[in-house]
Amino acid sequence: xxxxxxxxxxxxxxxxxxxxxxxxxxxxxxxxxxxxxxxxxxxxxxxxxxxxxxxxxxxxxxxxxxxxxxxxxxxxxxxxxxxxxxxxxxxxxxxxxxxxxxxxxxxxxxxxxxxxxxxxxxxxxxxxxxxxxxxxxxxxxxxxxxxxxxxxxxxxxxxxxxxxxxxxxxxxxxxxxxxxxxxxxxxxxxxxxxxxxxxxxxxxxxxxxxxxxxxxxxxxxxxxxxxxxxxxxxxxxxxxxxxxxxxxxxxxxxxxxxxxxxxxxxxxxxxxxxxxxxxxxxxxxxxxxxxxxxxxxxxxxxxxxxxx
Amino acid sequence: xxxxxxxxxxxxxxxxxxxxxxxxxxxxxxxxxxxxxxxxxxxxxxxxxxxxxxxxxxxxxxxxxxxxxxxxxxxxxxxxxxxxxxxxxxxxxxxxxxxxxxxxxxxxxxxxxxxxxxxxxxxxxxxxxxxxxxxxxxxxxxxxxxxxxxxxxxxxxxxxxxxxxxxxxxxxxxxxxxxxxxxxxxxxxxxxxxxxxxxxxxxxxxxxxxxxxxxxxxxxxxxxxxxxxxxxxxxxxxxxxxxxxxxxxxxxxxxxxxxxxxxxxxxxxxxxxxxxxxxxxxxxxxxxxxxxxxxxxx
Lengths: 308, 298
Hints:
The structure holds 2 protein chains of 2 kinds. Chain A is α/β, with parallel strands linked by helices. Chain A has helices spanning 40-47, 69-73, 91-101, 109-126, 141-153, 171-186, 198-204, 222-225, 239-245, 265-274, 289-296; strands at residues 2-11, 14-20, 23-24, 29-33, 55-60, 63-65, 76-79, 159-163, 190-195, 207-212, 215-221, 231-235, 250-254, 257-261, 281-284. Chain A folds into 2 domains: 2-225, Rossmann fold, CATH 3.40.50; 231-285. Chain A is built from 11 helices and 15 strands. In chain A, helix 3 (91-101) packs across helix 4 (109-126) and helix 4 crosses helix 5. Chain B is mainly α. Chain B has one domain (2-293). Chain B has helices at residues 2-10, 13-36, 59-67, 71-90, 92-97, 103-137, 183-214, 218-236, 266-293, and strands at residues 144-145, 173-174, 180-181. The radius of gyration of chain B is 20 Å and the shape is globular. The two termini of chain B are 21 Å apart. The A-B interface holds A 45, 48-52, 69-70, 73-74, 76, 78, 80-89, 93, 97-98, 100-103, 105-106, 151, 155 and B 1, 3-4, 7-8, 11-13, 90-92, 94-102, 293, 295-297.
């Protein structure tokens, strides 16, 4: 769905994006992670033809960008940093203008009726159906974000490119967003989003890429990253005796909690119980996305370190 | 996209507020003149103003002369300067472009929208001024004399200069050259003046539109265009700058007055059209070259 090859963007001496090979497959829910200033927004803008690459190639839906922007972007919905709207107009008027600005144009009466249907649908999807006629200047931050999403959805896109879509949303809003995106994904929409919120990506995405200082340092399916590590996490009041029995297999100990090199929790459990040891919790150890990301990234560019 | 831009223009309160204010100035002036029956003596004040009591039909020309030096350029520069930079500031520019709207298309749509605005304002000033002129100052009386254009309002003093207003009294209005003009002729010439002024404003619009593609500050673009006009106005009056004067954007701005001579004095009108066409082509070309290759980071 999105392929980039050695994509690079230089602003003067600064390399904002460095030789990125992105691979987003059809049907993915792809999360692009990275600290602030890692080049996420520049990358997203290049995918959309807003910023021109210094070198490298971009292919979206099998067509080269930005050369075929006109055909490609008709099937793409985008949210780029903050949402934007004409403040003196209502949500409906804004959506109508954005829709008419696209390939459909202002159109005939029939297409205008179709437009009204699409606006209703988009407002419904993002939960703004009741307030569509209020001017946007009266909207809260979260409502503006929802309107931005509605604008991305209005063309019934096959690909959604969303830059920090959770910004400004409260926990309820984030949950709604997750439900909406998963629902759309199930109907065949590929979702590509960037975020610096690990939890958001971990709960929503099927595949992640990690940008660090402009380089793509990791790109993998979440299922692979979160696969069992071959260790077992055990919580037992009899931790001392467990250590004695499994001498050498215990890698880490933190009070009652032990990290044990062993592949099969069920087998280990029955062995410990047979030995008369109490087990409070046991399960395969998986790395959290946070651990994965921190292991491949340095400090963010907005982190001011001491000069070395 | 053109339709969308026109809808945006029409639905924006600013359009109607600035239009009302621009039309209000000649109206206020007409009220004062109607009440006091005092007009500036010939040769002082705005062009045509000294003659409007003799003929209200001449008031549109007087009104245009009033709004041309300041009101129209400001309104034009603000609207054109805002066209791209304003969208960049509100963030809507990037959303329009990914709709997708081609960059060239967007620029053309903006230009048409700005042009429509300029024509709308000039026509509205003319129409309201005609109405107020006829209603407040009375219909034309025989022997109205339109020889009283302000000092220096036509830079080619001496050529086709206003002659003394000895009117034969046959026509509705006397031309600047002393011969009578029928109301139809006056209407035709007013249309010519409107077209000339609109084209002059397009020159301003092109400069402001170009600046609007460079900066993301709508204010900066508008003020930049106005600064260019002020500089041009200063140079136009400077004898030492005579070499470049024929190429300055405001050099022939007042040539529309020549539409009210008989016969129409075409030389400066033609030059005015030509120089504005050059400014429009050059600055639109620059705007296009810049906008179509630029990274949109706003």
